[in-house]
Amino acid sequence: MSHKMIKIYLGLMICLIVTGCQQEPQPHFPSEINIHDYNGYVEFGTPIQTKGEGIQVNGNTVTIHTGGTYALTGESMDGQVIIDAGDQPVELVFAGLELTCQNNSPILIRSAQAVTLTTKEDTQNKLKDTKNYLLNDIGATAVIYSQCDLTLKGKGLLEIEGRYQNGIETKGNMTIESGRYIIDAVYNGCVSFNQMVLQKADYTIQSDDTAIKGKTIFVQDGTFLLESKKTAMAAEWMDITQGMWTVESQENGFIAEELLTIRDGTYLFDSKKRCMEANDLAIYQGAFTLNSEEIGISVKDHFAVYGGTLRIDNSQTGLLAHSLDVNDGTLNIMSTVDGLHIIEKNEQAGNLLIQNGNIIIDAGSIGFNIEGTMKMQGGTVYLNGPTHSQSQALVCSQAYEMNGGIFCSLDMSGPTQLPIPESQQAGLLITLGKSFATGTSIMIKDNNDHNIFEYTSLKAFQTMMISTVKLSLGDTYLIYINNQLYGEITLYTAYSPIRY
């Protein structure tokens, strides 16, 4: 063979080799990903590139059969990751992944001991499904759907767009440890059929039904923006340690079928029906600002307040409960009907117990509407009642006691019932000669010119009932209205009506 022919032959062979290499591209890894940190690697694209054992590619679907840690990156408008690893744990690291599945869950977890989804630091990741799901044997209904315990964490961003039903759903426990999450779902945002633990992360969730839903929910910390057309967060049992919350719901904010416990945090609610609803509720600390078109807080059985600042700036009824214990804290309530309504339950009288704390109510109708008994042991209560005579600031169907603290009710006609004679604290029931406007100052002094009571009204009034430990039978007191001496009273009997 001539040298010329040999050169032509070798040239053809080189071309064929190069062409063959181009037909089978080798995986390349982004510089920020160290492949040695992972058991496997998947890059979505055309075609899908993988490295590592236990990874199977079938069309646009990647199935992971072996436990380990796998990095996922790339982009696909129709792809899916299935985990079917038996009893082995699996971790997926999202390192700049944008994945849409046209007919099922983009992340479908059939089996594993547990699965962890981690967002790599400084990466943006997005998962999305569509409204068109094919039937599958495990009934997947979410962008991330898991049959086992699921943990999410990381230092990156994960966006989830659920157009079929839910954003994230697991049949096991769900834990979110860290990261930033933006979820938009046509049904529920996050769903766990068992225990859900939410730690310090950034959550933005929009849903057409319930933003966060679980059997038992423990919230340790985090920043939450929840927008829902129905309920922001719902569970049988709910325990919130702290967090910064902004809740907007067209129906309800938090709903706990059994017990809702709030230990601290900052809360801003705007709900059309109820901001919080539970069978039992305990608030230990926290700053709350609630706005509701119906009821601010509804408790079927027992509500205990141990501290914190609770403001209900708008409501028909501020607080509704069968039993309320105020041990400390501040309650500031504005309502168009009742400020506080204590209701009967199963023909059992309701109960209000005030041990300490501060309560200020600005009510369009009744300040305290108590279907049962009331006992005041300490604290301060200011009821600014209706500006008409058809109802009163204080209505109590059974006996109530004044044993401590400062109590003041202002309205146009006075309470329907006076404290029982066994009360340890005296009081004044005064009907003035005319009504006085909002912003009127009231002052009571003793004969030694010492102030024993002072308050500025939030509504117009003509009748006032004032009780304080500083009032004593047999002593004489001076009544000042707007810093002008209005009258002098000698307290011969407690709560005897006095008219001017």
Question: Can you describe this structure?
Answer:
- With 500 residues, the chain is mainly beta.
- It has a 43-stranded mixed β-sheet that branches. A four-stranded antiparallel β-sheet has the order 43-42-45-46, with no helix packed on it.
- Strand 42 and strand 43 (451-456) form a beta hairpin.
- It is elongated and about 95 Å long.
Give me a quick take on this structure.
The protein is mostly beta strands and 500 residues long. Helix content is 4%, strand content 57%. The model is unreliable at 1-25 (pLDDT under 50).
Q: What key attributes describe this structure?
A:
single chain; 43-stranded mixed sheet; mainly beta; 1 helix; four-stranded antiparallel sheet; 500 residues
Main beta-sheet annotation? 43 strands, mixed
Q: Enumerate how many helices there are, as a single number.
A: 1
Mean pLDDT: 92
Round the Cα radius of gyration to an integer and report it. Answer: 33 Å
Number of strands: 47
User: Which ranges are low-confidence, i.e. pLDDT below 50, for 5 or more consecutive residues?
Assistant: 1-25
The end-to-end span amounts to: 133 Å
Shape: elongated
Residues in helix, %? under 10%
Task: Classify the beta-strand content into a percent band.
Answer: over 45%
Q: Specify the structural class.
A: mainly beta
